[in-house]
Amino acid sequence: MKTLYLVRHAKSSWDDTALDDFDRPLNDRGKKDAPLMGYILHQQHILPDLLLSSPAKRAHSTAKKIAKAVGYAKKDIQTNKNIYHAGPGQLLEIIQSLHSVEHSVMLVGHNPGLTDLSNLLCRKHIDNIPTCGVVCIEFDIEKWNQVMPESGRFIFFDYPKKHT
Hints:
CATH architecture: 3-Layer(aba) Sandwich
Largest sheet: 6 strands, mixed
Strand content: 15-25%
Strand order of the largest sheet: 3-2-4-1-5-6
Structural class: alpha/beta
CATH topology: Rossmann fold
Number of domains: 1
Number of strands: 6
CATH superfamily: Phosphoglycerate mutase-like
Radius of gyration: 15 Å
Distance between the termini: 33 Å
Shape: globular
């Protein structure tokens, strides 16, 4: 059994128009939403074996805030530059390349790739994963390279506005 948590980065700031998209930080709402979602995941006893993030500032900041809340060591967060701007096919390849020893993986990234990936992996259609939204999908497999389209079972979909 493998469990995948798809996490869209928290709300980011557009205040500094000179900043490259990659370097945009979280805004005030994002700085509140990421720990909130981390707390909610912690309350459900969710602690991933691997936390994998886009290296973009807003995604990595989200990953660090969630890691702190769930008890995952921030120094163990791995980044993969291919997550940034990845489509569902590229994200699927990243997942399929994961080590089998990791049973639960949290992937922090961006839309539209994450929403498209969620819809590719399970039969539950989601229109949009909002900022800091989390989709949990389980797979009855032993190795990540066995993840295929529609092979996942939708477990839950949560996001900050459900709790405010």
